[in-house]
Amino acid sequence: MAYRVPNINPLDVGQRVAIGVSIPFNQPQVFTQTYTTSDQIKSNIINFILTSKGERVLNPNFGTDIRQQLFESLSPTTTDNISSLLKEELKTNFPSVLVNEILVIPQYDTNSIFITINYSILGGNPNTLNITL
Questions:
Q1: C-alpha distances in Å from residue 3, one per residue of 6, 12, 34, 62, 105
Q2: CA end-to-end span of the chain, whole Å?
Q3: Cα separation, 109 vs 53, whole angstroms
Q4: What is the pLDDT of residue 73?
Q5: pLDDT tens digits for 21-56?
Q6: For residue 20, what are the β-bridge partners?
Q7: pLDDT at site 83
Q8: What is the Cα Rg of the chain in Å?
Q9: DSSP of 61-93, one letter per residue?
Q10: Given strand 129-132, what is the order of strands in its sheet?
């Protein structure tokens, strides 16, 4: 029976070489470093979602327009808009990420939402990864 050996990103070979910084910045030290590309991609996606378009200097197209949905009334239409917006933006800006599912779960009592993104990295880690915001 054939066994497929997963591809390993060259950046993941050096286990003591940091690739980037982890988000959110809630550790006792100033920055928590990431040592794998899958951890760094997760931090990059969180940073991308939490940044509004036009907020980043010299890169006005970086980020999402999810904050424009903040003061809309919470309805199934709003959650569908957020889901489709995120799916399109992630597809455009992260070509190495395959978004499997985006769940936007409304909390009507607290007027808030939970966003869960299930994704996998193309050509790398075949496992499904999750982000919950």
A1: 9, 21, 29, 40, 38
A2: 41
A3: 29
A4: 84
A5: 787 777 677 788 887 888 888 999 999 999 999 888
A6: 34
A7: 92
A8: 17
A9: T-SBSGGGGTTS--SHHHHHHHHHHHHHHHHHH
A10: 97-107, 112-121, 129-132
pLDDT for the residue numbered 15: 65
Output the pTM of the full model: 0.81
CA gap 86, 56 in Å, rounded: 18
Q: How far apart are CA 101 and CA 98, in angstroms?
A: 9
- Chain-centre distance for alpha carbon 128: 13
- DSSP 8-state code for residue 35: -
86-93 CB contacts, 8 Å cutoff, 24+ apart:
86/49, 86/115, 86/117, 89/48, 89/64, 90/45, 90/48, 90/117, 90/119, 93/48, 93/62
CA distance 42 to 21: 11
* Domain 10-132, CATH class in plain words: alpha beta
Residue 11 has pLDDT above 70, yes or no: no
% of the chain exceeding 70 in pLDDT: 85
Encoding tokens for residue 66?
């999810």
In the numeric block, the tokens 């990059």 are attached to 44
